[in-house]
Amino acid sequence: MVRFKSRYLLCEISFASPNGWQHVEEKKLHRAILEAIQKAHGDFGVACCAVSFAVKYLNTYTGILLLRCRKAHYRLLWSTLAFIHQLGKKETCAITCIHVGGTIRTCQKFLIGYNRQQLLRKLPTCKSEAERTALQEAVRSCTLQELQEDVVSASEEDSN
Amino acid sequence: MACHERMEDDSGKYERIVHKNGSSYHYLKISLEFEEDTSIRLNSAQFKQLIISSLKQLFGEIGAALPFDVLQFEENTLSAVLRVYNRDLVKVWSALTLLGSYQSEMCAFRVQQVSPFLLALCGNSRTLKLE
């Protein structure tokens, strides 16, 4: 059974200036990454990676980016991400890969855990009391929910 | 990787040494041919730059940074001996193959001989003259 296997690179973009975020779009990113591959790996790199290359998901609030590539050439794409330092001659940015998965679902699982960690990391850097309470509420909502499910399932078992 | 065998024999002891990947380099004997008879002359630096530009076109900045040496260069015949590492042979050879022009003159690299040992490039059965 022949199937096209792909690798999904879960990346995080960070910008030097806070206004960098307005200009980021999926198509622009797509073109910028292909240009970077052309520069770093030449015609061979573009031919390898561009076949099944897509920007699958972009979140401008958290800076999370999901790229798809063929399984055979994902390392070419991964190494190119280190060379990307600006998008469209304006904003300086840096892209780091935080996870490589075989399916979107595994990347999503990782992202949920990663976001939870990031919430906890941001807690000490809160500047105002309102921010702090909002963050604590967010952390509680994504951790307490699991406990409730346990409680619900325990009570179901009891009743059964 | 070398492998040693020792045989105890009446005729005397012998030792067999097998080298896999005996050399970490490959040597290419190449020549640059122009389509029409032109008066273009290159020196060794321009020759190396031409190969690097072909690598850059095909394999990008990373390809252009592949280390290789022009061990010998003859200006009259535009032929040279290159030395590349084993892992870079395929990339350099394919870049040589795909080069099409120099200063808008059509040209091509002819790869005459490739060997992991430099000594093999000095004698060639193709150029052997039978009297």
Task: Write structural notes for this entry.
The complex is a heterodimer of chains A (160) and B (131). With 160 residues, chain A is an alpha+beta fold. Chain A is flat and about 55 Å long. Chain A contains four helices and five strands, in the order E-H-E-E-H-E-E-H-H. By secondary structure, chain B is of the alpha+beta class. In chain B, a hairpin with a 2-residue loop joins strand 6 and strand 7 (105-115). Chain B is globular, with a radius of gyration of 19 Å. The N and C termini of chain B lie far apart (41 Å). Chain A binds chain B through residues 37-45, 79, 83, and chain B through 55-63.
Number of DSSP helices of chain A? 4
Helix content bin of chain A = 40-55%
- Which structural class matches the secondary elements of chain A? alpha+beta
Shape of chain B: globular
| Biggest sheet overview of chain B | 5 strands, antiparallel
Computed over alpha carbons, the radius of gyration of chain A is: 20 Å
Query: Biggest sheet of chain A, in brief?
Result: 5 strands, antiparallel
3D shape of chain A: flat
Distance between the termini of chain B: 41 Å
Total of DSSP H or I helical runs spanning 4+ residues of chain B: 2
Topology:
The complex is a heterodimer of chains A (160) and B (131).
Chain A: E1 6-15, H1 26-49, E2 54-59, E3 64-70, H2 74-81, E4 86-87, E5 91-101, H3 104-122, H4 129-159
Antiparallel strand pairs in A: 1-3, 1-5, 2-3, 4-5
Helix pairs in contact in A: 1-2, 3-4
Chain B: E1 2-7, E2 14-19, E3 25-34, H1 44-64, E4 68-74, E5 79-85, H2 89-97, E6 101-102, E7 105-115
Antiparallel strand pairs in B: 1-2, 3-5, 3-7, 4-5, 6-7
